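INFO worker-7 received task bundle
INFO bundle size: 2
INFO processing item 0
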Amino acid sequence: LYIDGELVGGSDIILQMAASGELSSVLGLAAPDRTPPRITVTPAAVEMLKGALADAPGASLQLTIDARFQPNFQLAPHDDSAIAAESNGLRVQFDLSSARRADGITIDWVDDIRGKGLAIDNPNAPKPVQEISVRDADDLVRAGNVTLVDVRPADERAIAAVGVPFKSFDGNGRAELEGLPKDTPLAFLCHHGGRSAQAAEQFRTLGFTKVFNVTGGIDAWSDEVDNGVPKY
């Protein structure tokens, strides 16, 4: 990175400066929020994690949470200047972005039907895609409480389309939908429910918090809501 023609540093130095807040100062920006996140690590998780730390002297546990809220634990060199939080005697380091995404998390150790390993409950992560019946989708659309999105191409919609307002991906349709507030309720519809499930998951990973997949698609709509909608 060069600023005003002067070399500031390569990627490693810039990452360190960004994490410490020094880069913001150099660029004349407000200092980043370095408030440690509130975390809860259960005793069972502490026991397992401290066991891993015992085999790596001088290391600290670092938790990274990416933009899709996928967590990644790793052992990293202890950094006194890092953003760190402690729970039940266990210290965890974070980078700037991960610290904000981690606020309020609970880290547990499970050994049950889910398998064996660490389990993270993150209240900031987008909720999973929820299934919704065609009847409920019809009611919500008519009440103005959800935006219906038909992900099928125009040729399929010409064969069969629902009789309520809906959006599509035609033209700039997808970009316009992606620009909506992240708490906009969206219900995705296709032929049988497969393509709509994929689209719904994509929007969930973009940060949308109220995402639904219409179970059974247009065929179920014809069977249960409006038999005037052709089946194909």
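INFO item 0 finished
INFO processing item 1
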Amino acid sequence: MFFDRLIGLCAAFAGLVLAAIALAISANVVLRNAFGTPIFGLLDAVEYGLLLATFLGAPWVLSKSGHVAVDLVTGALPRPTARALARVMAAFGASVCAVVVWYAAQAALISAGKGSMIRTAFTIPEWWVLSVMPAAFALLTIEFVRQAIRPPGTPELAGL
């Protein structure tokens, strides 16, 4: 399915970003200790990379139920009741994520309209950084809707 491929690609990209961060930090340690010259702007690049990896990996983690879950209550409920509660909570999660999409998109659009820039080791438009959040939360909204229709552990979603 297209959506599964999309969030899989986002997760793969997040993994590549984390691998690049690990390699860059290792190289930075060697360069700093051996030659006294660190990689310019690495701290800022790592911060942006962590932002990307976190937000782009989140929809895939949600789709795999890889997030932290406290199932003390739902584990004690009868299966039909637990499934109904899972649907309600997924609908609630979709609602919250949709609200975040709206406000995060507004922030990115306002920033783009003002031409705001982030000036650190790199100078980049602020909306580039802000646009990651509405995109990721849109994917999270879709995944929560999918889980509201068919909670994890049920046969594949048809048509989504």
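INFO item 1 finished
INFO post-check item 1: The chain has a mean pLDDT of 92.
INFO post-check item 1: The chain is about 75% helix and 5% strand.
INFO worker-7 idle
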